[in-house]
Protein 1
Amino acid sequence: MLNAVIKSRLAATRALMSDQGLDAFLVSGPDNRRYLSGFTAREEVLHESCGSLLITRDEALLLTDFRYQEWAQAEVSEFDILIYQPGMGALFIEQLGGLPGGRLGFEPSYLSCGQYQRLTKAAAEASLQVEWVPTEGLVEGLREVKHPEEVLMVRQALTLTEKVFSEVAASLRPGLTEHQVAWEIERRLREGGAAGLAFSPIVAAGANSARPHHRPGDYPLQAGEPIIIDMG
């Protein structure tokens, strides 16, 4: 089932690439990478990369760090896995050299300025005629239409979120700190079966409730004061 879904997503991506006149598409966003390939590895820090996808009319490649080789091989079947060490620049340029054309789409929201400079410099030094085309929302548009299994997971996540919110709201009392409430949210979500949280829970009490994206701290809940909880 998963292989069929991945194949259909690849076909839809290539159709959009054709519409935009792209010969190749470099996918750097972690959520888009997972959506198109099934590879679940995720960056923990900005300067670390679990890899990128390079999609052409005829090829689908996952370029990844040697540390992720076994992980990728266990999860990815519709992409050829190419391993680089220590960086993907040389391998990327090698693959670009075989492009049938020169229009390369990339995700400007996910390809850092430093990565872009290194890759474009390497392409120029290799005398490759590449037109770098910033491409916004191509994969995100596909992701808006959910597969039935995705719909089921969304429903399960929503059911758990509502259950935990109700339980935590009923347990609130003066003296609990924002941090304690946030931890209770995370604990209950994970014990309820969540693989992870969409984002760190926001618990903002009293004057802190006026602060956008407040980070829970040691402020204790007070009777009669507002409290904002943002969770999922």
Protein 2
Amino acid sequence: MSFSGYGNKQLRIAMLGMVEGNGHPYSWSAIFNGYDEVEMAKCPYPVIPAYLGKQPKSALGIDGARVTHIWTDNVDDAPRVARASLIPNIASDALDVIGEVDAVIVATDIGGEHVERCRPFVEAGLPVFVDKPLADCERDLRIFQSWVAEGKPIMSSSCTAYAREFEAFRASTQELGELRYVTCTTMKSWERYGIHALSAVYPILGPGFVSARHNGTPEHAIVHYAHATGAEVVIAAIHDMMGGFGKLLLCGTRSSAFAEFGDTYFAFRAQLLDWVAYLRTGALPAPFSQTEELMRMLIAGIRSRDENGRSVLLSEIAS
């Protein structure tokens, strides 16, 4: 049976999981609930209180939805997040939220862990939002495909798909002519952060990615994609390139354009609003087939790297 949405009911959401290098439980919960300035100042990710502090208090909160429960892998983290982001309930076990909430967010960005993190909630029939990437291997992607085919309510996305700075290009690139070369950059690992750069270019070019060739190393991922339109796409994920997140270049037959991701709060809020709209209506903001294609793109990059730079067709993966 497919998910038809909750309508206008007050939504109770559980924020689950926290891994090194990812502060989403702080930031996403604050977007829903607001935050305590003194406690948020203690957040181990200084960028989070910095961009939250730029927002007027009226911008915080999502109507009819609150994060009511928190569970983190390290038990010491949950009270800190709860105090900072005004979460009233701390779960001693992630499974304890079943029966207490309407939906869960799996707020970790290690794709290889997501099937097992999500399984009990999917099997309980709870809608699940999964932080990017949904999966980083074919076996796990097939499991998510089977759950979605059964009508299980699952959504996953990257904030870069909602970036204010790229919005004009998502609407149209007509002024540039036919796109011939597109590139986007990110820092950190291909497995965890490649999806951000992929998700920036995907809504601009749309479905139709054909193949991937990884020309780098685990620390310096340079992945070349062919698209059905004839556009060549290059994604760079370099582990210590902290100044290179979300730099987008589009080159066409008539002109070119460059844009930089910058407004993190706007993108996160738009992403979470899309998920809340899904919870209310049961209608995904984009077909799950697009999430599948993005995961094939990520996995094809990994497979190409592991197979000495072989050009990997996306059709080889969980098709």
